[in-house]
Every structure is written in structure tokens, then in C-alpha cells.
Write a structure and sequence with these properties.
single chain, about 60 residues, two-stranded parallel ribbon, 1 helix, membrane
Length: about 60
């Protein structure tokens, strides 16, 4: 299972496929993330920051 905790990711969490299987614990330590399954709602400012998908594509 992929665990994205403690990676300092920011922005909205992508929807669909494997992302739908992750629990909240998978995102611990990423205070800048927002959107489901987390309780942090995304606002317009989050679109200005590099998001999780962009960070994963770079690696």
C-alpha cells in the first residue's frame, strides 16, 4: 500500500482510481493537502501551490 504521509504535499487530493482507496492516515504530515477524504476543504489559494499529483509526476 502506498503511504504518502510526511511528504509535505500541498493542494487538492486527486480523485479516482487508487486515491479513493487511501485512508486519512495515508496523508498524515501533509498539512497543506485538502479535499476528500480529509476534512480540510480546498479554497482558491490551493490552486496556486504545487499539488500532490504534480509532485508525484516529478518523481
Amino acid at each position: 500500500m502506498l503511504n504518502l504521509s510526511q511528504d509535505n504535499f500541498t493542494g487538492p487530493i486527486p480523485h479516482g482510481k487508487q486515491f479513493n482507496t487511501f485512508s486519512n492516515d495515508s496523508y498524515i504530515g501533509n498539512l497543506g493537502l485538502c479535499g476528500l477524504p480529509l476534512s480540510n476543504r480546498c479554497d482558491n489559494d490551493s490552486k496556486l501551490q504545487p499539488n500532490l499529483m504534480e509532485m508525484m509526476m516529478k518523481n
